[in-house]
Specification:
It is built from 19 helices and 10 strands. It is α+β, with helices and mostly antiparallel strands and 567 residues long.
Length: 567
C-alpha cells in the first residue's frame, strides 16, 4: 500500500495534466480556426453553380451528385484531411496541430523541477523558482508558436495542392492563425495558469520560501485584461462583422472597384443586404473604440493604483513609514488601501514602542523581546562578561548638588561613559543610581565577549577623562570591574511588570571586583577569567598587572585580579 502511494505521488509530480490542458486549449483554438477557414475558403461561385445544377436536376426528376473534383475545389481548407469511405463517399476530418515542439520545450523547461523531485542531488532552488514563475508566460508564447506553425503550414500545403497562394487566401490564413493564437494563449494564460499555481507552484513553494517575494517575469493586470477583451470580445465582434461581409464580398467588391453604373445597379438590387452590413460595421467600430477606451480606463483605475500601492509596500519594507495612500472608494481596492494604512499605523506604533522601549533597556534586548527570537525570556543559562562601573565619592557629591543639577550631571555622565559600551555591542542592563551594569555575550551577537568588555572599559576611562576636561561639573573618578562566567538571563518581576535581567554568581563577583578598585588604587580591575579569554596582543600599549590574591565575600578561595594600565 505504501509503495502504491509512493508511485501515485511520483506520478502526480510528472504534471501530465499540464500537457493535457495545453493540448485541450490548442484543440479549442484549432476548432475555431477550422470553422473560420472552412467558411472563408469555400468557393461561393462554385457552390451557387452546383446548387443551380441540383435544382435543375430535381426539376427534371433526376438525381445530381457533385463530382469529387468539384468538391475539392469548393473546400480548400488546409486543416482538413480527405478520407474516402467504402462507397466512395468523401469526408473531411480536422487534422490535429503538431504539438511535438511545444511538448518537448515544456519538458525541457520543467527539467530542473523534475530533477529536484526525482534526483538526490541538490538543485538550484532559485532557478526552479524562476522556471515556475515564468511558466504561464512560456505557455502563453507557445500558443502563438502553434499559431505560427499553423499559418506557415497552411500556406505551404495550399501551395502544394493548388499552386500559387493568392493574397486573399494568405490573409485568411493570417486571420485564422490570429484567432488560434488569441484563443489558445488567453485560455492557457488563465486555465493552464491556474493549474500551474495550484499543482506546480503551491506544493513547491510551500517547501521553499512560501512567503517571500518571487523573482521572474509576469503579465501585468492591464495586459491580462487587454488579452481578455481581445480574445473574448473584440475577436467575436469582428467575426460577427466578417460573416456578412464575406458572404457579400462580390457585392462589396463592385462597390469598391466597379464602375459608377455597376455601383448604382448593386445599390438598387442589394440595398436590403448592404444597409444591415453598414449598420453592423458602424456599431462594431463604435464598440471597438469603447473596448479600447475601457482598456485605458482599466489601466488608470486598477493597474496604476495597484502599482502605486506595490511601490508604497516596497518603501515600507525599506523602512519608510510615511507613505500612506488615499482611500477614495469602498470597493476591493479601497479596502486594500484602507487596510494597508491600518497596517502602516500598526507598524508606526510598533516602531514607536520599540524606540521608547529602547530608552529603558538596550535596543538589542528590546528587539529580541519583541521578535521573541534568540533570547529565551523564560530564563536561560548564558556565558557572558559582566561590567560594573561606579562613581567614587558620589554620595557626598550628591548631597552638595541640587536635585535638578544632580540629574543633569548623571545624564551627561552616563551619555559619555556608556557610549564605548554600545560601540562594543554591550547591552546596558540597568542604571543603579551612579552605577551602570552592562553585559557582553554571544547571545547578543558578541562572540569575543571578554575582549569587547575590556575595550569598552578602556574606552570608558578615556570618555571619563574627556568628560572631566570639559569642566562643566566637578571632577569625578570611577571604578570598573569585569568578570566572565555563566549566569542566568530572563524576565524577573510580576505579571504586571517584568524586567529583563541577569542573575548569578558572575554578576555578584563583577560588582565586588569593582569595589576592589578603591583598594587597588586603579580604575579598571578584571578577573583571571577575563584575562584568560583575551589576546593580550590585541591591546598594545597596555599591561596587565597581577594584584595580590583577594578573598571575595562568599568565596572559599582567593581570586587573582589584574590591573589594566598604560604601558
Amino acid at each position: 500500500m505504501k509503495k502504491l502511494s509512493l508511485i501515485r505521488e511520483n506520478f502526480h509530480k510528472l504534471h501530465l495534466g499540464l500537457y493535457a490542458l495545453f493540448m485541450l486549449m490548442v484543440y479549442f483554438g484549432s476548432t475555431t480556426a477550422f470553422f473560420f477557414e472552412k467558411y472563408s475558403l469555400i468557393d461561393t461561385g462554385l457552390v451557387k453553380a452546383q446548387w443551380q445544377q441540383l435544382t435543375d436536376a430535381q426539376a427534371k426528376g433526376s438525381n445530381y451528385k457533385t463530382p469529387e473534383a468539384t468538391q475539392e475545389k469548393i473546400y480548400k481548407s488546409l486543416n482538413l484531411t480527405k478520407r474516402v469511405g467504402e462507397k466512395g463517399a468523401m469526408t473531411y476530418e480536422s487534422r490535429s496541430a503538431n504539438l511535438d515542439f511545444s511538448f518537448v520545450f515544456l519538458l525541457l523547461w520543467l527539467l530542473p523541477l523534475y530533477k529536484h523531485y526525482f534526483l538526490k542531488k541538490p538543485q538550484d532552488i532559485g532557478r526552479i523558482e524562476r522556471r515556475i514563475i515564468d511558466l504561464p508566460l512560456v505557455i502563453f508564447a507557445l500558443g502563438w508558436v502553434v499559431a505560427g506553425q499553423r499559418y506557415f503550414g497552411n500556406v505551404t500545403t495550399y501551395a502544394d495542392y493548388f499552386g500559387a497562394v493568392p493574397l486573399r487566401v494568405k490573409a485568411i490564413f493570417g486571420v485564422s492563425a490570429l484567432l488560434l493564437g488569441a484563443f489558445v494563449s488567453y485560455l492557457n494564460l488563465e486555465l493552464t495558469g491556474l493549474y500551474v499555481r495550484q499543482r506546480l507552484a503551491k506544493p513547491f513553494f510551500l517547501e521553499n520560501n512560501p512567503y517571500g517575494v518571487k523573482s521572474g517575469l509576469a503579465i501585468s493586470l492591464t495586459l491580462r485584461y487587454a488579452l481578455m477583451m481581445f480574445s473574448l470580445a473584440m475577436v467575436p465582434l469582428l467575426l460577427c462583422l466578417y460573416v456578412p461581409v464575406y458572404g457579400n464580398f462580390d457585392i462589396i467588391a463592385v462597390l469598391l472597384h466597379g464602375s459608377d453604373q455597376a455601383r448604382q445597379l448593386v445599390l438598387t438590387e442589394h440595398i436590403g443586404a448592404l444597409v444591415p452590413i453598414a449598420i453592423i460595421a458602424l456599431l462594431t467600430g463604435i464598440i471597438l473604440v469603447f473596448q479600447a477606451v475601457s482598456i485605458l480606463l482599466y489601466r488608470a483605475n486598477v493597474q496604476k493604483p495597484v502599482s502605486a500601492l506595490v511601490g508604497r509596500m516596497k518603501a515600507v519594507a525599506a523602512g519608510d513609514f510615511s507613505c500612506k495612500t488615499s482611500v477614495l472608494y469602498a470597493d476591493e481596492l479601497g479596502q486594500l488601501k484602507g487596510h494597508f494604512n491600518m497596517m502602516l499605523d500598526g507598524l508606526v506604533e510598533r516602531d514607536h514602542i520599540k524606540d521608547t522601549f529602547g530608552r529603558y533597556v538596550s535596543l538589542e534586548i528590546a528587539e529580541k523581546i519583541m521578535k521573541s527570537g534568540k533570547v529565551n525570556l523564560a530564563g536561560e543559562e548564558i556565558q557572558a562578561t559582566v561590567l560594573f562601573s561606579d562613581i567614587r565619592g558620589f554620595t557626598p557629591m550628591s548631597e552638595n548638588l541640587p536635585p535638578v543639577e544632580l540629574i543633569r550631571f548623571l545624564n551627561e555622565y552616563f551619555t559619555s561613559v556608556t557610549k564605548p559600551i554600545t560601540e562594543n555591542r554591550g547591552v546596558i542592563n540597568k542604571f543603579m543610581g551612579d552605577a551602570v551594569m552592562a553585559i557582553f555575550s554571544p547571545v547578543f551577537g558578541v562572540e569575543d565577549h571578554q575582549a569587547a568588555a575590556l575595550k569598552a572599559a578602556l574606552g570608558m576611562r578615556e570618555a571619563l577623562r574627556e568628560f572631566n576636561a570639559r569642566g562643566h561639573h566637578p571632577e569625578v573618578f570611577f571604578g570598573v570591574g569585569l568578570h566572565s562566567g555563566g549566569l542566568v538571563a530572563g524576565n524577573v518581576g510580576t505579571a504586571e511588570r517584568l524586567e529583563y535581567t541577569v542573575l548569578g554568581d558572575t554578576v555578584n563577583v563583577a560588582s565586588r571586583i569593582e569595589s576592589q578598585t578603591k583598594t587597588a588604587a586603579t580604575q579598571i580591575l578584571v578577573s583571571e577569567a577575563v584575562v584568560r579569554g583575551v589576546d593580550k596582543g590585541s591591546f598594545p600599549g597596555y599591561v596587565f598587572v597581577e594584584c595580590a590574591p583577594v578573598l571575595m565575600k562568599g568565596k572559599s578561595r582567593p581570586m587573582v585580579l589584574y590591573k589594566v594600565e598604560p604601558a
